[in-house]
Amino acid sequence: MKRKLKKVGIALFLVLIAIQFYQPALNQNPGQDYTNDFLITTNAPSNISKLIKTSCYDCHSNNTEYLWYDYVQPARMFVESHIKEGKEELNFNEFGSYSNRKQQSKLEAIGKQIKSDEMPLTSYTLLHRDAIINEVQKQELITWINSIKQNSLSEK
Ligand code: HEC
């Protein structure tokens, strides 16, 4: 029995080593164009810009700031799948290229996700403590989101 457990342990260890070699492409595009970026097109104030960049951009933009453990498997696969799904739903770098209708519905969704504490994901804030949004910041964000919602609605 003991010998069998030892074998299983060794096998698991080897699998753990083997999967380290699987490193999917990084979500990093240094030369990218920022003309459609959400924070730039909306002329976001610096406190708002900093909050959204710190708490949302790692999964909702074309550039993720990875931490050392993000490179360790199986964490790497988990992180990369969140980025892929997050970007599909909402890419802040491309927000300005969305139709007005899509922008409005995304603004609505952003407000809701922040209000209900669904975003940023808990699995993310567990290790990225600086991404946690406190109550005061939450209110600031929601007020600002609402203000740009009205602006763009009255324009069109
Ligand atoms: C760790 C990665 C991660 C972070 C950080 C993150 N998100 Fe997300 N987000 C996702 C994933 C994955 C989805 C898609 C699955 C889901 O809805 O849970 C998503 C979905 C969304 C949606 C839903 C889109 C829709 O149309 O319904 C919105 C809005 C959103 N995120 C906003 C935000 C905002 C705002 C922040 C920062 C305050 C943020 N997210 C931070 C990963 C992340």
UniProtKB/TrEMBL annotation:
InterPro entries: Haem-bd. Pfam families: Haem_bd (PF14376). The keyword Signal applies. SMART domains: Haem_bd (SM01235). Residues 13-149 form the Haem-binding domain. Keywords: Signal. Residues 1-27 form the signal peptide. This is Haem-binding domain-containing protein. It comes from Flavobacterium fontis.
